[in-house]
Design goal:
InterPro entries: Alginate_export_dom (IPR025388). This is Alginate export family protein. It holds the Pfam family Alginate_exp. It is a single chain. This protein is mainly beta and about 425 residues long. The chain has 2 helices and 19 strands. The two termini are about 15 Å apart.
Length: about 425
């Protein structure tokens, strides 16, 4: 009924209907933080179920994604999820419209406005990404003005969050109920956000500039209750992040480099002055094998915003995810290899050496070493299987800053994913 209804009202256009069922079975034996000696591993299966619909017609695009995230067995089989509201995984992931402000006959310049709930993905997803590895992903309620030519891309974005339709005032509670953290480190959601992204494409590479400002609700500590709690109030703490990202390629040699500065005041009301520097060099050896080496450096004050840390700092998610590491910053030196055997099978291996960027009282800076192995097999264009194993050799320094007593030095994580993602197009 939905495709027929949309097409009959519009008269013409292309309707897209898609679905995704992605299960991930995990063995966690020290994932996210060193395990306590003697602790038993966790074993479970999580599932993402998505239904996507889209319409592409004259000067208008529409996108809609609803999803349900759950762990197998999370609900009793005879009750519904209203009995477990804290675990409610059903949500509207995307709902946006993009309006083409220039005529479709103008192919060399396009000006459009995209409004609604949407993913923000830029460059390598280091600072702005959809965090697709997590079953729930990440999205923003925002307005996005887009100007694009063959060589240039310029996007300006704006978001302003509120908890409800208020009668007066704009005080915002940045810790709304639910299991979806606002930023990379799982902290409070921003009250407002503005960014400007400009990219210039060259024959063998591109250079991009990002300026992003985010504001967080100001607060006072209410000591009249026990324990003391934050009381949100009018006013904001403002933080600004800016920098450049460059990527280039010559023959089979590929390189990327990035540098960002972050200043202002963070969500805790603390003054920050931090930086992120990264570089990566990759060499292809024929069509099947590529190897690379890279280094990342983040100062203690730097927060990687709304990016995808799983992609960069080890698949076991020890850094810049939900588990803190005392604001010490991070040095990451890594080697990477990827092998593609035919059109269906791909395998990869990464090795990371992690160090703190700041001194740790009474300990050295070495945090540990992680090895990640993954393999992907594509059965069809709609069905894929992925498996991985990671091992983390942690140090007493890491246990200290993650506040894990009696920590094990050997930690493991393994997973198997089945990803079913069909899509249909109707003209």
């Amino acid at each position: 009924m939905l495709p027929g209804l949309l097409l009959s009202q519009q008269g013409y256009g292309q309707f897209t209907l898609g679905a995704q069922l992605r299960t991930r079975t995990e063995l966690r034996d020290g994932q996210g933080a060193p395990k306590t000696r003697g602790a038993s591993p966790a074993f479970f299966t999580s599932q993402r179920t998505r239904l996507m619909a889209g319409l592409n017609s004259y000067r208008l695009k529409l996108g809609l994604t609803v999803q349900d995230i759950r762990v197998w067995g999370q609900d009793a089989s005879t009750i519904n999820r209203t009995t477990t509201p804290d675990n409610n995984g059903f949500m509207l992931h995307e709902a946006w419209a993009e309006i083409l402000l220039t005529d479709t006959l103008s192919k060399d310049r396009r000006l459009s406005l995209k409004i609604g709930r949407q993913e923000l993905v830029y460059d390598d997803s280091r600072l702005l990404g959809n965090l697709d590895w997590l079953q729930q992903g990440r999205r923003h309620d925002a307005a996005l003005l887009k100007y694009e030519t063959a060589a240039w891309t310029a996007h300006a974005g704006l978001a302003f969050n509120q908890n409800k339709e208020n009668a007066s005032g704009t005080v915002y509670n940045p810790l709304p109920t639910g299991n979806y953290p606002g930023n990379t480190n799982g902290g409070p959601a921003y009250k407002s956000l503005e960014f400007l992204y400009v990219s210039r494409r060259f024959q063998q590479g591109s250079l991009s500039f990002l300026f992003l400002a985010d504001q967080f609700s100001a607060f006072q500590i209410d000591t009249t209750v026990s324990p003391a709690q934050k009381k949100w109030q009018a006013g904001v703490y403002s933080r600004m992040t800016t920098g450049l990202y460059y990527t280039g390629q010559h023959d089979r040699l590929l390189w990327t480099a990035a540098g960002y500065y972050q200043g202002g005041t963070n969500a805790n009301g603390q003054t920050v002055s931090g930086a992120l520097l990264s570089g990566y060099l990759q060499q292809g050896w024929g069509r099947q094998l590529s190897t690379g080496l890279g280094a990342d450096f983040t100062t203690p004050d730097f927060d990687p915003l709304y990016g995808t840390p799983h992609k960069f700092w080890g698949y076991m998610d020890y850094f810049y995810v939900a588990s803190p590491f005392a604001g010490k910053g991070l040095q990451d030196y890594y080697l990477r290899a990827k092998w593609k055997a035919g059109s269906r099978f791909t395998a990869g291996a990464d090795v990371h050496a992690f160090f703190s960027a700041a001194a740790i009282d009474g300990y050295n800076k070495r945090l540990g070493t992680e090895a990640d192995i993954t393999a992907t097999y594509t059965l069809t264009g709609m069905i894929a299987f992925e498996a991985g194993y990671s091992h983390f050799w942690s140090t007493p320094s890491l246990a200290k800053i993650k506040q894990v007593a009696n920590a094990s030095g050997n930690n493991n994580w393994a997973y198997v994913t089945v990803n079913i993602h069909p899509e249909w197009r109707i003209k």
